Amino acid sequence: MREEEKKPTSTIRRILKQRWALSAIYIASAAIILAAAFLLQNSFNDSAKDGKEESAETGKNYGQPSVEVNSNLETIKMPVADADKTVIKKQFYDVNADEKAQEEALVFYNNRYEQNKGIDIAMKDGKSFDVKASLSGNVSKVQDDALLGNLVEVQHEDGVVTRYQSVKDIKVAVGDKVKQGQAIATAGKSQINEEAGVHVHFEIRKDNIALNPLDFVDKQASAIQSATEAEGSELDDSAKKEETPAVDENETDKEEAPAVEGSKTDKKESPAIEESETGTDESPAVDETDESTDLESGTDEEGSVPGEDTTEESDSLKDSLKQSN
Fold it and tell me: How many CB atoms lie within 10 A of CB 122?
């Protein structure tokens, strides 16, 4: 038994004692290491290619103006450093407000009344102040306008735009990226609203529709989207309600059903009957025929009498001739 157990160990020792044994082991281990390194290198190359493709896709929009991604999460602020020191000179014209509020929100210029599409903000002491960006975004428009008092427009997500008019000393240019609270200009004056003095005309627009800024101050910018969607659904519902008079139209069709009335009027206007009636009224045709028959009968009777007289006269002449003969 001991000799049998010693046989395998003796064979391994014999192999190891051979001159080529160690070199074969080194070659096999080197081959294994090289194969592993080759596999690892291929895996790294595949990951590098995926990364290049992703970077190429992300680089497609390079050079285009970017919009602040987190602007919808920001809270809309007044375009001033300290809102408590300001006063609103002219309110936003609200079509749902009472008549007095609407009159106060009208701007009179050049013998014309214009609806105020924003709010006019001024300091209580009447001094100038820095105009701050209400939301982060990209400057999309800078315009010098004496009538409006110059203009700066900042674009945000979902078609939202903030507009700052009646400003001077503009500190930004088209394409600049501004942060919320960044000074973009200084309050100034405008010809269209000289009564407001030194102020800034502040507007919030969604898809070029002016909204009341006071309805969204201290709210997230996403509230503009939800509010406009709600207003759009209300408008659609009201439009559908206004269009429902299809039933009323059917009723009016039933009420107006001039087909029956027309038939009545046709019957009333049926000149055939009237003509027949007038024909009966004007029935001298029958009278004429009667008269003609009477005349004919009369002539016949009268003619018959003379006929008899002529025959008698002829008979008397014949008698007289016979006598003369």
Answer: 22
